[in-house]
Amino acid sequence: MNCMMGPTVLVTLGVLFLMDNYHLTRGSTFIAVLLIVIGGVKLLQSGASTEGHRQPYPYYASDVPPATATPQTDNTQVNNNG
User: What confidence tens digit (pLDDT) does each residue in 38-78 have?
Assistant: First the structure.
């Protein structure tokens, strides 16, 4: 249902313009019908099952990947090569 908003709005606008050409609607019904259709699609999107679908990619606050732990070096040995 996530990809259905655009096609549904386009079909609704097409039907509304067709009805307007035949003088079956008023101008104020365009916005009302369009808002009802958008609300219906949003309602269907919120209730749609995600069973068998891929989960969306995780969102990170920035492009910087999480920091990894830096290896600790052993500084207890003394090097006297000199």
Answer: 999 999 988 877 777 676 666 666 666 666 766 666 666 66
Calculate helix-pair angle for 5-21, 28-47, nearest 10 degrees. Answer: 160
Q: Which residue has the tokens 């990894």?
A: 68
The label of the residue with tokens 């990619």 reads: 57
How far, in Å, CA of 39 to CA of 42, rounded?
Answer: 5
Q: Which two tokens stand for residue 16?
A: 């509304």
Q: Return the closest-CA partner of residue 13 out of 43, 45, 40, 29.
A: 29
For the chain, give me the number of helices (H) and strands (E)?
2, 0
Q: Hey, where are the domains in the chain?
A: 5-47
Q: Which residues contact 63 (CB under 8 A, 6 or more apart)?
A: none
CA distance linking residue 25 with residue 17, whole number of Å: 9
